[in-house]
Design goal:
Layout: E1 5-15, E2 21-27, E3 39-40, E4 43-45, H1 53-56, E5 59-60, H2 64-70, H3 77-95, E6 100-101, H4 113-127, H5 133-140, E7 143-145, E8 149-156, E9 165-173, E10 189-193, H6 195-200, H7 213-221, H8 226-233
Parallel strand pairs: 1-9, 5-7
Antiparallel strand pairs: 1-2, 1-4, 2-3, 2-10, 6-7, 8-9
Amino acid sequence: MVRPRFASTVVLVRSNENGGFEVLLTRRPEEMRFLGGFYVFPGGTVHASDYSPKILERCRGISSAQAQGILAGRHEPDEALGHWVAVVRELFEEVGVLLCVNEKGEVMQFNDPTENRRLELARRAIVAGETDFGDFLQSENLFCDLSKTRYFDHWVTPETYSMRFDTRFYIAVLPVDQSALSQSEEVTDSLWIKAGAALARMDRRDFPILPPTTTVLQRLSRLSTWNQLRTEFKLP
């Protein structure tokens, strides 16, 4: 039996003009070993670097002890907090969305094309392994705003799979003035879609999707408005 790796997945949501909401789904490249070609929520493995001292001093909003408590004591405090950091890092790596604040606690602004281009080049450097997320945060004097994410579910890949993940599921609101990349090194396509609309397409050959993604979408589809979603998950 393969031992599952710890992972974090995030459901990124945004409101729409009708008072409802949409979720972000990303399609994994066909050549990926795990769920290649399938639509999933952004996420990935929790690395030891996600809870290194360099990263931990760049976290705001949740303490290691609080993270351990939320995850029912199944991890050491710093490793537990690393699950939240993995959400922030994976969102940036995969779709360019950055859940960070500056040293004053101010939300990142993305209304300067030159600045946006510089951050995009930094994202590519992280993905290419030319730098790491902790160095990026230090050089930009940024802090992960972990208060923006809400933990809500836990899934473990069945034993029959050759690759297994022990995955924590989170939900976060797309920050104002930010947008998700349509493609990246780990994403062949991304789309914003209502949960119910995604479920209606799940049997189509061009929209491969599996549990637990479908299970999360089913839960979200029972919420018809943005206010209901925010109340259900206590979103900021």
